[in-house]
Amino acid sequence: MSSTADKLVEDYLKRLNAELRGLPRARRRELVEEISAHIAEARVDLEIEDEPNIRTLLDRLGEPVEIAAEATERFGPRPSTAGWKEVGALVLLPIGGVILPVLGWFIGIVLLWISDAWSTRDKLVGTLLFPGGLLLPVALGVLASESSGCGTVVTPQLSPQPNGFTDCPPPDGTGAWEVALVVMLVLIPLVTTVYLARRMRRMSAATA
Amino acid sequence: MVAQQDALLAQMRRGTLQYCVLSLLADEERYGFDLVRGLAETDGMVTSEGTIYPLLSRLRRDGLVESTWQESPAGPPRRYYRLTDSGRAALEGFRLEWRRFRDAVDHFVERTET
Fold first, then answer.
1. Which overall architecture, per CATH, does domain B2-113 show?
2. B40 contact residues in A (CB cutoff 8 A)
3. What is the pTM of this model?
4. Which among A34, A39, A43, A78 is the top mutation candidate for probing chain B, defined by the most B β-carbons within 10 Å of its own β-carbon?
């Protein structure tokens, strides 16, 4: 009979875990841990571990969907929708490396990981697809030094007149792929930023 | 009207539940199961035991309670909850307000009944 009991409990916890998927991972794990500890304690108190007793025990706990609704309401609407961490990450990841070479991008990564607004998968996407945010200033630096005589602009985005490229004819031959490279380096971070922004909204909608 | 009343009572129960949890922790620390059964013993306070855990988690994150892991006589370690200073202050504040509110409502409700 004990295996039936285990099966019932296992199913219950699986359903609970699924219902809580909208929550940040740490909270979800804490709730599942606490509730499975509760079940274990309650089972010790049972005289007979038969199916009716286990079902009664789980009924007293309540439906997973009910617990999830309570969790969503108790934790309130996610403050991160427009929180400083999320805005900071979304700004610094694509252009942080330009504002403050290397360090700016790194701060963006830290903000991305300490924020609750994204799942671990999204954070990985943001981190791995974002070397662009780091490479961009490097590439620009290389380009600027190559096309010497076109001004000393290392970070054209910040200069008052963005003439880093337009005023200088690209060097013969290499120009085309260099421009393509820069376009890629600008586009990939932008696409990833849009992706993260959308994922963030979806997660907050799921918990709201 | 009845449905409205039910909703109101549910809201009142929900809003006051956290202070009942804080009260249970006022004198001693307790682990989750113990705390939940303590609440469920009083009729009408909790309908689904599992819904206490999100509340506990929030109280912990708000800094009103803190938790420590302690060995249990049998089985795995338990997470014990206890009041923090700000939890105690919140409970005291609520007690004063609650008494005043309860007396005020009693003043009208109890009089019209008799």
1. Orthogonal Bundle (1.10)
2. 60
3. 0.60
4. A34
> Across the A/B interface, how many CB contacts are shorter than 8 Å?
64
Looking at chain A, how many residues does it have? Answer: 208
Spatial contact of B39 and B13, defined as CB atoms under 8 Å apart: no
Rounded CA separation A58/A52 (Å): 10
Q: What is the pLDDT of residues A89-137, one digit of tens each?
A: 888 877 777 777 778 888 888 888 888 778 787 888 788 775 555 666 6
At residue A83's C-alpha, the angle toward residues A79 and A89, to 5°, is: 135
Instruction: Check if the beta carbon of residue B70 is closer than 8 Å to that of residue B91.
Output: no
Smallest Cα distance from A1 to chain B, Å: 21
Of A16, A30, A38, the CB nearest to B36: A38
**One-letter amino acid identity for A20?**
L
- Establish if B40 touches chain A: CB-CB under 8 angstroms: yes
Whole-angstrom distance, CA of residue B49 vs CA of residue A38: 9
Domain ranges of chain B: 2-113
B52-93 confidence digits (pLDDT tens): 999 999 999 999 999 999 998 888 899 999 999 999 999 999
Q: Which residues of B67-104 are buried (b: 16+ CB within 10 A; e: fewer)?
A: beeeeeeeeeebbbbebbeebeebbeebeeeeeeeeee
| Cα–chain center distance at B61 | 16
Q: How far is A119 from chain B (nearest CA, A)?
A: 20
Query: In this complex, is the C-beta atom of B65 within 8 Å of any C-beta atom belonging to chain A?
Result: no
Give yes or no for B33 touching A (CB within 8 A).
Answer: yes
**Interchain CB distance below 8 Å, A61 and B48:** yes
State how far the Cα of A59 lies from the Cα of A53, in Å rounded to an integer.
Answer: 10
CB A31 within 8 A of CB A17: no
**Positive or negative torsion for Cα A43, A45, A50, A53:** negative
Burial class for A26, CB neighbours closer than 10 Å (0-12, 13-18, 19+): exposed
